[in-house]
Amino acid sequence: MSTKEKPTDAEKLRERAEKLAKKKAKKKVTDEFAEMTENERLRLLHELSVHKIELELQNEDLRRAHEKLDAEHARFQDLYDFAPVGYVTIDKNNLIHEVNLTAATLLGIRRIDLIGQSLSNLILPEDQDLFFHYRKRALGAEEVQAEEMRLLKQDGSWFWGHFETSSIQDTDNGQVCRIVFSDITRRKLEEENTTRTSALLETAGRVARFGGWSADLVENRVHLTPQAAEIRGKPDELHPTLKEAGAYYAPESRKKMGDAFRKCVREGVPYDVEVEMFTAQGERIWVRNLGAPVRDASGAIVRVEGSIQDITRSKRAEEEARQAQALLGRAGRMALFGGWRMDLADKRIVLIGETAAIHEMPPDYSPSFEEAFNLITPEWRDTMTEVFDKCVHEGIPFDEEIEIVTIKGNRIWVRIIGEAIRDGSGAIVGVEGAFQDITESKQFEEEILRVNNVLEKAGRMARFGGWSINLHENRVYWTPEVAAIHEMPADFSPSLEEGLSFYAPEWRDKITEVFGKCAHEGVPYDEEMQIVTSQGRLIWVRAMGEPIRDSSGVIVRVEGAFQDISERKRAEEKILRTNILLEQTSRLAKFGAWNVNLAEQKVYLAQNTSLIHGFPQGYTPTVEECFNAYAPESREKVIEVFRKCEKEGVPFDEEMELIVGNGERRWVRGVGEAVRDASGAIVRVIGAMQDISDRKRTELEILRIKTMLERAASMALFGGWSVNVAERRLYVSGQATEIYGLGPGDSLTPEDAISRYIPEWQQTIVDAFDKCVQKGEPFDVEVEIINKRGNRIWIRKTGEAIRNESGEVVRVEGAIQDITDRVQDKEALVRNNQKLQKALDEKDKFFSIIAHDLKSPLAGFMALTRMLTDEFNTLPLKDLRRMAFELAQATETMFNLLKNLLEWSLMQRGLLTYNPVICLLADPIEHTIELFQTTAGNKNVYMQSELDQNLLVYADKQMLDTILRNFVSNAIKFSMSGGTIFISAVRDKDMAVVTVQDNGVGMDEEHLSNLFILTRKKSLRGTEGELGTGLGLLLCKDFVEKHGGRIWVESQPGKGSTFSFALPIADGVKPAK
């Protein structure tokens, strides 16, 4: 069974084209074709065939282009995935949309797990703020934004990453950020090492009296490091002109220094010279000055840079060594030499010259052979017997160094030389020779041997050795140290050509030139060049050579020293880089120097210092101008410390505020010290200044945040804890010290800490801690503990595991918080909810009572008004008056009830304004009596009063009036016709007591006990049926207590009631009107 092959893209395209052509052409094309001649049809067919071939060719080109595009896409994908840096694309929500394989590898997370994850989760917590601001800055920025921060790996470790982010508009995800990052952990570590090395080099420079310098040929000025300026004795003079710097050198050294510098500038020849110079104090010192040219991009020499070292001590040591050598030479010539001669016939020795003195014998003494022989120490007698016999019998001369004992018993070393004396027949008749006391030279030899051993060890340590070339043999002799530097065997002795071949190709012409001049013209050399060791290592060496001449002055050897200076070269390069970094750091750190000439009262400012002050560059202000630049609150302090330094030489280091020209305030740190002349007089004050505004702002912000955090921790009763799993020790901070009862620096074992928990909670905390240590599970528990005061308190404790690089749990850290108040508040909230529910129930009941009490007068009011409406024209005038009176009474009752209810409601909600003033208590009482006089008269009730007219109270007048109205109103309501109400106001110690007493119906114990309880109020009618709710008394109680007073009631049924309240007295103050 055959199957139809799937059409190709070209066939599909052809099919679509034919359909389109048919659709467009239809009948018109057919008609036009029918009208063509045969030739036109053939030509059309030919053109169509050609066009078909063209289309097929174009289709083939498109197919190949498509394949090429696919290949390019695959290659791009490989380049993207296997790039040496990580690529990540994030959207505006910080979610990862794309990530390459390198990024996933660096993070240790599968690429599929990274997609959709927030990039913030991969940033170290300490760098989260930095990343937030960086992403915010990068999103929408036109330029690439760079930053360095730390990323977390899946295993919990982290590494430093360098980020470069560009913001683009993506068709699918809107505004996105494409981030390129790389691992720069090694570079960061190297930067830290460089910082430490720079500090060590700076210290070494001070100790070794070593500094750097740079001569700018454009500015015609020399820039010195502080160490170099210190050698000159002028630490403040860091930028002299070339002419001023040249004047430092002693006249006899000036030409040598000038020639070397000019040759370096004109020909690019580096130099290393030792010259003399004068310090600022006039002291003459030796310095070693090294210089090398620095070229610009075009190859032109624009600077000369180098170093300077105070070598005065080494020069003095060299001079002392030279003098010692000369002294030793003179000692050699003045040494005790003598002669001797012995005649074999009489065996008697004749002593010549100093020989007798060496033996400590009399000058004319002539010992026998046996006497002289016996002076030789026993260990040397056999040697002397042998050589003497050979000389006497065989004529063999001898030259021996032996020990003898002088006549006085002193043991000394001597050199004895002897040779045979023959007569005319050649027979040996005697022996003669020389005698020298070499005790000192022997001691010197021993010392030299010891020194040589030390030097040999020093040479090995310093990689320093010597060499010698015999020009006749053309052979180089190396010490073992030089052979070791070349990484050759210790006994290796190369030819001159072999020795020169070790030099690097770029230095071979140089060594050939200087060695040739030394060997042929006697010019010594001292050069620093590079060699290639036998192991192929390129190292720096210092090679020194000088000619050795024979007695006729002909150069027969060249000798010298050889040292591996690779370490020093690397150090010099680091020093150079460090100096550049220091200069850049000075600019970045807003740091500059200043110098005050006290005679001129002028302040010379460095460039950065002028910028800090806001002075124009090159401007030299007076001391007073500088004082006036400081803020008023800092100016007095500045003047005080400067004058103290100027007069007493007291250095200062202060932080003060400047006001620059535009009114901006800047915090600066000013350091200064006095400089004295040779006589000890203070002539200058020098120092440095740094703009520390950013630091001050940061310090203030840190202090603010720290204070806030401390307050927050204190308010929240919050602290931290940490357990070192290996040490089994608990360390706490903040409020945790209070909870555990520990002092600063104290610690506990976890077991001790657990024992402080309430027993029923101990297992809970043990289980949580063990799971955290063993499985890394974090925990968050609320438990009870006994604090250091012995109180039971509730705490919330959280903890999480901290792992090392290998994933092991090494610490458990977390937070602890005293939540006793929260737990108690929670319990109190439950209680308050219960109370609130009870109050709501009471309020509902109270409103039911109020509604019931309002219902009666309102019902009577409605009945009277309906009767008036229906029967007004038929009712007699007497009835109308009675009904109007009853309406007035009902209205007044409802009004008073509603007024009391409103005031009580305002009081309960805290909305009633309390405005106390000092007033006479008698005034509102008399006003109330006058107010109720008519009401009491209508009921035939009499009111009497007895008031202290001088009582002053501190009270709210409106509240006081309400209390008095309720008391008097109640007394009238419950009094019989013909009854009496007695009102008094008296002083009782520091209280004013007001009493309203009636002889009315009175109350029993049940009514008295429920009188001030809201839900137990039961309204009572007055003696003439007056209505009431008792709400007025509740309001009176609240008002009295608001004033800090108290209220009470005494009553008996049928005998009346006495209502009293007391308010604090306000004595000695004039009452308010």
UniProtKB/TrEMBL annotation:
It catalyses: ATP + protein L-histidine = ADP + protein N-phospho-L-histidine. The keyword Acetylation does not apply. Residues 849-1067 form the Histidine kinase domain. Keywords: Coiled coil, Kinase, Phosphoprotein, Transferase. One of its GO terms (molecular function) is phosphorelay sensor kinase activity. InterPro entries: HATPase_C_sf, HATPase_dom, His_kinase_dom, HisK_dim/P_dom, HisK_dim/P_sf, PAC, PAS, PAS-assoc_C. PANTHER family: PAC DOMAIN-CONTAINING PROTEIN, PHYTOCHROME-LIKE PROTEIN CPH1. This is histidine kinase. It comes from Desulfonatronum thiosulfatophilum. The lineage of its organism: Bacteria, Pseudomonadati, Thermodesulfobacteriota, Desulfovibrionia, Desulfovibrionales.
